[in-house]
Amino acid sequence: MNYKLQQNTEKKIILAAANLSVFVTPFLASSVNIALPSIQRSFGCDNLILNWVVSSYLIVIPMLLVPFGRIADSVGHKKIFTCGMCVFVVGSVLCGISTGIYQLIGYRVIQAAGAAMQFSSAVSLIMHEYSEGERGKALGLNVTCVYIGLSLGPVLGGLIVQHIGWRSIFFINATLCSSLVLLMSGILKNDFSSGRRIDMDIRGTVLYSLSIVSVMFGFGTLPSPTGVILIIVGVILGTSFLRIEMSTNSPVLQVRLFRKNRIFVFSSLAALINYSATFAIGYLLSLYFQYACEFTPSKAGMLLLVQPLTQALFSPIAGRMSDKFDPGRLASIGMGIITVGLLCLSFLTMQTTPRFIVIDLAFMGLGFALFSAPNTNAAMSAVDKAHYGIASSIFGTVRLLGQMSSMAIVMLAASIHMGKVKISAGNIDTFMQTIRTDFAIFTILCAIGIFFSLVRGKRGNIEG
Fold first, then answer.
1. Number of C-alpha atoms within 13 angstroms, CB side, residue 369?
2. Is 190 among the domain residues?
3. Which of 180, 210, 457, 462 shows the greatest Cβ crowding within 10 Å of its Cβ?
4. Cβ 32 vs Cβ 54: under 8 Å
5. Domain check: are 212 and 344 in the same one?
6. Cα–Cα nearest to 126, from 16, 225, 212
7. 332 touches 273 (CB < 8 A)
């Protein structure tokens, strides 16, 4: 009886820690989006350099997620998760005391390393603790915390930036993450690990990392010839990486999960496309509200609140529904709703009323709720328990690659339409044209994503 009580207690602690972890990261991300104009004023940087405050974070996480996932399967998911929180705290403090824009970007890399360690283990911890009939509910609560973080980030972040300063955002996140370390410190003994020694594929890891960096830098310098060359080099490196992973005995990326599991691969592709089409929404609208509408950071944050708040309200319901109905169908409906919402934003003008944008954001919030938890449930339920760690990392990697791609699209459109200039009253029309281009591309991407979501098939398992 005491053992069962202890087991239930640890179960609740793990869910609470995983939920708080996924709250902190989006809270920081949405807060930083609101803080970008203030950061730009502090350091006097141009628009393209400013983008790297976000993009540097998104590049490093997918570079490290899969390697940390493999390490977690060997040494323990709880240990890697807790170490990640410690690294994240250090990175947050350093970001808060940075004295230049390039220093801030460098410290965001440290933050990203800690976040990668957490992301590689958070979902796998939930999958280990909760049985199939209750995973949807647990994942729904996990997604809810993501969107609560996104909800509070613009509001509290706007207030913090306006009244205390953008540096305080990083110090507050360091404090929140420190509490996670204390929460997890007492349950590290009973860890989930294989106990097997895993030989790391160093060559594959290096090629993978160089491929991501090359492609991202290439997008950032388009339409210059250097940008084209970097993208081509990145594609070549990525192709070489895949060939190595299919032939090596100890791959850093388990390509077998993609080759033998239709549900997992199409769920991952749906997540990749969805995040490619949606991650930059908050970034673009934050700039729109503050530059085009001349709203204060706190008012802009209040308007951006509606989408993640709607997601937070409906995600637990969508999670429970995915335990009873086909999660793939629910995710497809959600992506369809998001596509319609993005189409509306592709016609954004200086005369568009804030009320219209708020209604559209609420509509898309419902779509996100129907997509996120059911899609994750479909992907992870199709994987054998022995592969939870690496599957969680792979799924997290494609999600973050989607986020990185979303920012790359924004950077590409900004490079073509605006070049290396600061957003100001003199180029606001060009800025609006850039935003409309971004949302038109996102609409097309999301429409394509509906197809991949629909053809994934029913629930299933791969061989262990």
1. 28
2. no
3. 180
4. yes
5. no
6. 16
7. no
Whole-prediction pTM: 0.72
Task: Confirm whether 296 is domain-assigned.
Answer: yes
Helix axis angle for 2-43 and 297-304, nearest 10°, is 140
- The pLDDT tens digits of the residues spanning 321-341 come to 877 777 878 888 999 999 999
Q: State which amino acid sits at residue 421.
A: V
Single residue among 215, 236, 251 that ends a domain in this structure: 251
Q: How many CA atoms lie within 13 A of 153 on its CB side?
A: 29
State the residue range of the domain holding 243: 201-251
Are both 260 and 323 inside the same structural domain? yes
241-276 residue pLDDT tens? 888 877 777 676 666 666 677 888 888 888 889 888
